[in-house]
Structures are given as structure tokens and as C-alpha cells.
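for the record, two folds in this file. i put them one after another cuz i was lazy. first one right below, seq on top, C-alpha cells after. the second one comes after a little note so u can tell where it starts
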Amino acid sequence: MALTNLIAFCYLNGDHNAVPAGRFTHDSITGIGSFQYGRRYLERPNALPLDYVALPLGATPQPITINGGLYGAFRDSSPDYWGRLVLSSRMKCTPEALTEIDYLSMSNATRVGNLDFRVSLDQPEPVLAPPQFQDIADLIDASQMLEQGGAVDEEIRVLLEQGSSLGGGRPKCTVQLDDQLWLAKFPSRNDSINIPSVEYATMKLAGICGLNLPNIRLVSVGSHDVFLIQRFDRVSKNSTACWSRCGFMSSLSLAEWDERDRDKWSYTTLADKIRRYSICPDADLRELYKRVAFNIAVRNTDDHPRNHGFLLGKEGLYLSPLYDVVPSLTHSGVGTEFYLAMTVGSEGRLAHIDNLCSSASVFGLSNKEGREIADEVCNKVIEEWKTVCIESGLSTNDIQMLQPSFIR
């Protein structure tokens, strides 16, 4: 069948049961999606737009043709590559065998943001059943088995489905610890260094540089290290395992970019969008500028627009805490020139502080302020990176492999 209809639901501020918001129709032949808000939803005094840019309340939504015919916030709430690998294992097929609509309707209560998609109005609430922290050892074993293309125990696979669309294609799972929800990021069987510890150290370094972080932890489970990042799109209401949900949009969605249009990805364009849509544009612009400087300082070249996010609260949209920042490995003696995933300044994607400073005015900064902020971030990284890595338990070999990413 070419046309598929799903009911889009939204968890409004503080509510633990979603309300129907409208109907999403997708044509698999043309790759075009369309959405229509329900009248009753629009009459709600606390109604929120499902997509802050493409689906504002009160306007007639336009059909969507980019990203496979999914509105940005809809695509954000769909699983990432790892989630697709886990979900396709349920169907005993490859991730490519399932459609975008399949994934949109298969995700569960731990999907990022405050949206849900159901085939009918009377479909029950998805069950929130995240595994406990003590299940992590079994989850790591299962994730490595899935990476090899093997089958896993059904009970463990169900637990592993409690994932998220945040965090890219690495093995992970949402877990419950200390009455909070955490995204647990596991080692991969293909890792050449201790990536969970590297990510933890990099985030600690970002905190030293003054960037806005979620709560993070590094824990040891048997012979493995696991990086925990608290789910910032979930807010614990009490000690009875009850969480309210925050709306989420990636930068890809805020700027209405297609995942394939990499030439359009630009920090300066994103800055313009923040100026237009954020409820605290000055603070968000300064924070984003510092994050670009940090990406340059730590050689994080995986800074694509899905790795920058925004939360939707009662008052409106604002930049989310930092996530998914890891140095890319290089070799001593290799040229120091490298590129970020998004345009930085007048010299395109060139990862250089001079290039970033050329766009300081777009972020609401003077040339002097832009230079001072960038220099401060870079100097902090140079001074602290090795100490932070040692304190994070990285081996001498791992630190040696990371050194060319920091010292240039």
C-alpha cells in the first residue's frame, strides 16, 4: 500500500499519558509526508507544536519531501542506526529491509523527545520498562553479539530495545539508575581504544571549558567501561520511577536540512535559526560558538547537525546540553589541517580558530570577544586534556593514540 496513516501523539508538559495531536500520512511511492493537527488538540490551552519550525500551531502544515518524507521532529524521534539494528533483529531482517514508517511506529517509550506514533487512537500507551543498571553486563554481551550479526536471547533483546535516537550508531541502551534515566553507551567490539572512557574524558574537559553538560558518569562493569549520560529529555517527578518528557529537535530539523544535503550544513545558518527561534538567543549563540571552538580544539569531526539539539519547554525552544563529542583519531606527522562536518566561517569547514573568528559577528560577538572565547577554550584543552584522560582511567597507550588529536 502506498499510503500509510499514523496518529501522532504528544506528551504535554508534565503529563504521563500522551494525547492525540493529529494525523500523519506518508506516501511511500512519492516519498512525501503530510500532517494535519486535530481540532481538539489545537483547542488545548497547553498544546505544543510537534515540530517548532515545520508544524507551528495555527498554520496549515505544508507537505514534507526531505528526509524520506518525515518532518524533522518526527525523524528525530525515530531510532538511529543502532536502534534500527536492534529493532530489525526483532523482525529477523536487515535494517534496510524496514521503512521509515516501520521504524517510526516501532519505537518505544524511551524514544527521544515527547512524541509518539500509533496506528490507531485506541492503541495503548507504550510500556516504559528500562532495564536496571545491574542488567548492563548482559546488555553489553548482547550488543556485541548483534554487532557480529548473531542472535540474542529474546528477553535481553527486549531490554536492549530501550534505546534512543540520540548518540549515533554505537551500542547503547537507556537504563534506570538512582531513580533517573541514563543513556548507557557501551564499548564496541571494533573499538581500537576505550571509547566510553574517551567520551567521558572529553565531556569532562568540555565542562572545564565552561560548556553546558548533562550529568555524566563512567562506570566499570566487569572488564568493560560504560559511559552514562543522564537523559536530558526526561525529568524525574518523584522516586516512583515516573518521568515527564521534554520536546526535542535536532539542528538538522531546526534548519530544515536534508541529511543528504551536506553542503548546506552551516554553523552560521544555525546561528541565524537560533536568533529567530530560541527563547534565550544570546546565551545559546555564545554556547554554540564555544562548542565549535571546542570541536576544533579536540578534533571532533563528527559534529553533524543531528549531534546538536534543542529542547522545547513551556516557554519555547532552547539549546540542549552537549552530547556525542569524541575526538577523531589521527597520526603523528599527519598534516594538521582538518575539517568539521559543518561550515565554520569564511574558509568553509576548515577547523581553524581563525576561520571560526571570521564568523564571530554572526554569533553576536565582537572580533575581540570571539578571539578571547576561542583562545580560552583552546588553551584550557591544551593545559588539561592529559590530566583529565589520566583521571578518567585511560591507559598510557590510549593517551598516546589521542595525543595527535589534541597537540597540533
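(here's the note) second protein begins now
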Amino acid sequence: MTNARLLSLPVIVAALGYFVDIYDIVLIGMVGRDSLLALGVAQEALAATLAHLLGLQMIGMLIGGFAWGMIADRWGRLATLFGSIIVYSSATLLNAFVTNVGQFEVLRVIAGFGLAGELGVGITLVVESLPREKRAYGATIVACVGIAGAIAAWGVSQFASWSQAFIIGGVMGFALLALRWLAHESGMFRALDATIPKGSLRLLFGSPARLGRYLLAVGLGAPTWFVVGIFVFLAAKTAGVLGVTGPVLGAHAIVWCYTGLIVGDIGAGFLTQALASRRKAVALFLSASAVLVTIGLCQRGLTPAGYYALCFGLGLTVGFWALFVTIAAEQFGTNLRATVATTAPNVARGLFYPMQWALFALAPVHGYVTVVAGLGVVSFALAFLAIWLLPETHGRDLDYAEIGPEVD
């Protein structure tokens, strides 16, 4: 297997698609305040309105995860990648021209719906196109290029207006659409027997064994969004509680965390190959992350630079995100693979919202740090249970289908 094969068109297309995807996902965190101020939202209502828009985007992603996953399993991976990028690129482009918050709300739901189809289907196409010994490397390339989209969003936000930033995101998406015309459909998908049910939620959730594997796969991603949600998206609040000696900017926390995620994803890809085990690699990353979260919660009086360093370290230790999606995809047959790979990360992202609700509901009674620590214990317990119970998939043959109550 040559590097040219590893850097094949499916990998390039998936990586660039994830780049545009991440750019759009975090862009609202970078330019959201400026855009809302321009739309006349009062200063005191900014935080609540921005949180509301992020929630609407997540609702769109949850719905889109199931829709695009089933489309990818029924009609093809490429059809989904075409459809999803058209939807979210259009919404992002139109976002530059909104004149009121209501329009903003509608477009963030539509954008979230489209964004949901990118990572899971891209990873599915990659793992079905590469030989088994190179799948982790392919997923690593997708993740590293994709997560760099967050850094790009920060860079654009420093030099462009909020409307220009949305225009750039939309144009990038449509430019990528042209490249996708050159890609080919997954051979495994094309070879599926036409009589086999594809993208069936009844087939996925109707079997206790499959449902169990699916829930474990979702649980494996819980710590990532606990860490990113609490320490990065809620950076100003968390830093204040921890007694950081100066103001912490959310945009800077995002950049440092996502830079750590890039390093972590590279390390996770090479580690899983070196150990010949997805499970061992993820277990090591989870252990390091749990230790660093504990250290972070015990710190008081950090400087802003120290807090950004903590965000970088936390990003690095949860940098198994692409490996998590790969593991989820590899747990299931070709007729359900895209459905799982697309919904699992979006459901895992969605876990942040009940975490956030629990945090703000319980913190006034039990204390912010205590509740964060409790949420961390639950998140990491779910992930460790998942990596203990899920079957090892390194080197597994993926050319099979899910039939009936058991795996054929």
C-alpha cells in the first residue's frame, strides 16, 4: 500500500468536507456575538440568544444525522455527501444576508441538518475504500484536515466581518462540491445484495445486541463533548469559577483546544496502528483525559495562558474523535454502517445539552465544580464501559451485512 493510495480521492474528499463542516460548526462561536449585535440584540441578551442558536443548530444535526445516515445506507455514500454539502453551504451563504434573528434561527437549523451528514458518511466511505491495515491512518487524515477548519474559522474571524465569514464558508462548500464529482462510490456498498434491508432503524434498534452496541458506541464519545462543552464552549464561566486571573476568550479557547485535537488525532491514529488495537489506544487516551480533567478542576489561580494550555492538553487527550467514529462504523455491517457512523457522533454531541442543563440546574445547590466533577465521572464511566465491552475492530473485515436478529 503506497502513500498515494492512502491519499486517495475518497480520503481527500472526506477530509476537505470535514474541514468545511468544522469551519461552519464553530464559526457561530467566533462571530456569533458580532452578528447578533448587528441584528440589534441587546448586550444582556447575547449569551442566551447565542446559546439558543447553538441549540437549534444541534437539533438540526440530530435530525440530520438520522436522515443522512439512512440515505447513505439506502442510496449511497456519495449521494449523501453531495446532498449534505449543498444544504449546509446554501444555509451558510444565506446566513451572511440575514436581517433578523428569526431568519438566523431557521438557517442554523438547516445548516445543522446539512452538517450532520459530513463526518460519519465521509469516514464510512474512507473505511470501505481503504485496506484494513490503513483505515486508522485514513481516518486520522480526515480528522486532522477537518479539525483545522476550526483554526481557519478563527483566522477568518480576525480579518473578516461576520457576514464575510459566512460567505467564505458557503463558497468553500460549493467549491468542494465540484471535487466530489470525481469521487467514486464505495465498492462494498455497490456489492450489497439488493434484497437486504439498508439503513433500517428497525433492523438497528430491533435487536438488543445491535442496540447495545450502538448505545456503547455513542457512550464512547461522551467525554469529548464533556471536555469541549464545559472547558471550551463554557470557557468564560468555567475559568471564572476556577479563579483564572484574567479574562478568557471563548474563541481562543476553541483554537487551543482544536489545535490539541489535531495533535491528539495524529497520535491516536499512529497509536492504534502501533498497538494493533483500537480499544487499547482509546483506553490510554481516556485515562490521560480523566487525569487532566481532575488536575484542571483542582487548579486555582491559573493565568489565561495557563487556561489555554489546559484547553490544548484536554483537546489532545480527547483527540480520538475520528477513531471513535471509525470504531462506531466498524461495529456494523455495510447496510447499517453509515447510519451508525452518522448518528453516533451527532447523538454524542447532543449529550452536551443535558449536561449543560444539569450543570446550571444543580450548580446553585451543589457548586459548579462539584457538578462538573460528577458529570465527568458519568461521562468517563460510560466511555470506559464502552471500550471494555465493544469488540475489537482493528483489522476486521467490513465486507458483510447485518441480517435478522444476529450478524450474518
